[in-house]
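Postdoc handover notes: sequence design on the structure in folder B. Input C-alpha cells:
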C-alpha cells in the first residue's frame, strides 16, 4: 500500500491483530520492508505491525537528494499521522535506528518504546570520506559494485556460507535500491551527532548489536547505552550487521522480552 505523506508517496505494510499495540519497523540503508520478514512473522500475533519503505527505498518515492535524518523522521511522523497510529513501539536497525533516535528527540512522547539495533548515535568526522566514496561509486557505476562488499560487512562468513538464500535475498534488495535514494540517505547518515542528547529521550530504550558487527560495532552500541539512562544492552553472538536476520531467534527473544517489560 502507498500513502502520500510529507510530500512523497510512502509504501507501507500493516500486519497483525487489529487493536493490538503498534510496533513500527524501520529498515537499514539499501533494504526495504522485506528485511523484517522474520520479525513480522514472530510478532504479528501480539502486535499491530507497521513496516514501511524509507524515502528512496523499496516502493517509496526516491526524489533527488540530499536527504537529512530530520527529513526522514518527518516522513515517519507524517506517515503515522496519515494512518492514525498512536503511541507505537519502534524498532529500527542501522539507518532505521538513526531515524528512531532523531524522531524521538524531534517528536518527544510519541514512541512508547525505542529499540535501536546495530546503529550509532554519532560518526567521527573522518567517516564522511568513506560515505562520499560509496556515493560516488553508486552515482557513476550503479549499485552493483556495492553489493558484495556490503554483504561481506553485513553477514559473517559462516552465515554467508550456510545461508546463501538469505544473503541472495538481501543482495536483490541492495541492487533494487534507487541510486538517488542510496545517495540521499548516505549523505544523511554520517551527519548523525546525537550522543549528548540521548539522555533527553524519556521512553524505555533497548540497544541490540551483533558481536561481529563491523559497520556499527559493539563500541557504538555501548556508547548509546552509556548515554541513555536506564537503557538495556543486548549483544547477540555470532552475528554481524543485519543481526535481525543472522541471529533472528536471539534478536526476537530480546525484543520480545523488552516489549513485554514496557508498561
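Designed sequence:
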Amino acid at each position: 500500500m502507498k500513502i502520500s505523506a510529507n510530500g512523497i508517496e510512502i509504501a507501507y505494510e500493516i500486519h497483525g491483530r487489529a487493536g493490538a499495540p503498534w510496533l513500527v519497523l524501520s529498515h537499514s540503508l539499501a533494504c526495504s520492508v522485506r528485511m523484517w520478514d522474520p520479525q513480522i512473522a514472530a510478532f504479528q500475533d501480539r502486535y499491530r505491525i507497521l513496516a514501511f519503505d524509507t524515502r528512496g527505498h523499496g516502493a517509496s518515492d526516491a526524489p533527488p537528494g540530499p536527504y537529512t535524518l530530520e527529513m526522514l523522521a518527518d516522513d515517519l511522523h507524517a506517515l503515522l499521522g496519515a494512518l492514525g497510529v498512536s503511541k507505537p513501539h519502534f524498532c529500527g536497525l542501522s539507518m532505521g535506528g538513526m531515524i528512531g533516535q532523531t524522531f524521538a528527540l524531534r517528536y518527544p512522547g510519541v514512541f512508547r518504546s525505542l529499540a535501536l539495533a546495530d546503529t550509532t548515535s554519532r560518526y567521527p568526522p573522518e567517516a564522511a570520506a568513506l560515505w562520499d566514496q560509496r556515493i560516488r561509486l553508486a552515482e557513476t557505476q550503479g549499485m552493483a559494485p556495492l553489493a558484495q562488499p556490503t554483504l561481506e560487512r553485513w553477514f559473517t562468513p559462516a552465515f554467508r556460507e550456510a545461508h546463501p538464500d538469505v544473503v541472495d535475498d538481501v543482495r536483490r534488495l541492495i541492487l533494487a535500491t534507487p541510486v538517488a535514494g542510496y545517495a540521499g540517505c548516505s549523505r544523511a547518515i554520517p551527519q548523525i551527532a546525537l550522543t549528548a542528547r540521548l539522555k533527553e529521550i524519556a521512553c524505555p530504550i533497548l540497544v541490540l548489536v551483533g558481536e561481529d558487527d563491523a559497520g556499527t560495532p559493539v563500541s557504538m552500541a555501548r556508547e548509546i547505552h552509556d548515554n541513555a539512562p536506564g537503557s538495556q544492552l543486548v549483544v547477540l553472538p555470532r552475528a554481524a550487521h543485519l543481526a535481525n536476520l543472522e541471529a533472528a531467534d536471539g534478536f526476537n527473544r530480546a525484543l520480545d522480552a523488552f516489549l513485554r517489560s514496557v508498561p
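Context for whoever picks this up: The longest strand covers residues 8-16. Don't rerun without checking with the PI first.
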